[in-house]
TrEMBL record:
It comes from Saccharopolyspora oryzae. The gene is def. GO terms for molecular function: peptide deformylase activity. Its cofactor is Fe(2+). It comes from the Bacteria. Belongs to the polypeptide deformylase family. This is Peptide deformylase. The active site is at residue 132.
Length: 166
């Protein structure tokens, strides 16, 4: 399949909750292949299906050499311990803001054979799992920022050339 262009902040598909996957067919296989091809690019830690224009509950990840995907993922565990760090998003290029996330996260979903899959991690993997699941719920990470930082984020977004070229 192919590397797919990333939808930018402001595209309505990024604000819509993704639909659960019910058909495990060739079309889905093509979507998964595109997600894996797209996440394999340098600097891509995760890609959710809505970011490539497809409103289904699927994402791929590429963290510390571990590449994979999850269909119909649900966050089932978040640690009480948190991490603070700069978070970025392919849908908001050239921007990053300090975002608090759980230090550890566990996602459960299924694979192409509709068999159970569990992905867990700490640090960057935990951040990725939370970030991509948010995309599938129609949320972008800047919605998690405190009000003052969110105002600054929107100010910086309006200053981006890509924001006006949609």
């Amino acid at each position: 399949m192919a590397f797919r262009p990333i939808r930018r902040f402001g595209d309505p598909i990024l604000r819509m909750p993704a639909e659960p996957i019910t058909e495990f067919d060739q079309r889905l296989r093509a979507i998964v292949t595109d997600l894996l091809d797209t996440v394999d690019a340098p600097g891509h830690a995760g890609v959710a299906a809505p970011q490539i224009g497809i409103g289904v509950r699927a994402f791929s990840y590429n963290v510390d050499g571990e590449i994979g995907y999850v269909l119909n993922p649900e966050l089932v565990e978040l640690s009480e311990e948190t991490q603070d760090g700069v978070e970025a998003c392919l849908s908001l290029p050239n921007l990053g803001f300090n975002t608090r996330r759980a230090q550890r996260a566990v996602v459960r979903g299924v694979d192409m054979a509709n068999e159970p899959v569990t992905v867990s991690g700490t640090g960057l993997m935990a951040r990725c799992l939370q970030h991509e699941t948010d995309h599938l719920d129609g949320k972008v990470y800047i919605q998690r920022l405190d009000p003052e930082t969110r105002r600054e984020a929107f100010s910086q977004i309006r200053d981006q050339e890509w924001f006006w070229q949609r």
